[in-house]
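Support request, please re-run this one:
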Amino acid sequence: MKYSFAALSQNLWSRKFGGTTVGVANPYVSGYHFIWFANLPRLLYAYVQQGNSGISSNGEIQNILAAACMSVTPPGGTLNKIDFTGLGGSKWAVPGNVDYGDSVSIKFLEFENTPILDIFHGWIKMIRDYRTGATDLIAGSEGDGYTKKTYAGFLYYWTTAPDGLTVQYYAAYDGVFPLKDPQDTFSSDVESVGRVDIEIDFHVDYIWHEPWVKDKCTSLAQSMFRNSRDLVRTYGQTAAGA
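Re-run finished. Output below.
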């Protein structure tokens, strides 16, 4: 992609990068984003299946969350500085520490039979049962007890070019768990009829933006692309046989 950056130096004044020959540089276009929960708590489905949607496996949860993702707000970092005062009140500074956000916000589209509600209500209930205030994650034959591994997950997030395949931004989040049981989203008014979006803030312990993350996100993007392409190609055959 060096040709794009070389083109920037040709239009330092006008900052116009259109056309097809001189000074062409493709801008970043947002709106093409994807998520994938690579790891979910092993027993999560057991709590989710108690709901109304009939979800019976973590694989179903992974697919639903990936398909229902409408928007993502990733955390950023702030470099804090240490200020010093010199003679006559003059000031100077040096870097102090980097403070990164510890949450990522994701908006999901809800569907009939409320699968998104079931997922996050079940996840929160697993961590702290609303009826007792305690966790159900007890060491024994069904799990490893109350540990970060038994209630948190691992999430990949990436954006692509408009082809849905070429990875642009990429990140991985470890130690992920939701911070909300979204029951308050289900208010209703006879004068308001519309869609229901559920926005969940997730806590994260680690944020990764490394080459291995891009490699994994590229692999996931290719897999999703192939599945979507195969679905489109076979749609006519399926519809004809319906």
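The two ends are 46 Å apart (CA to CA). The first helix runs from residue 2 to 8.
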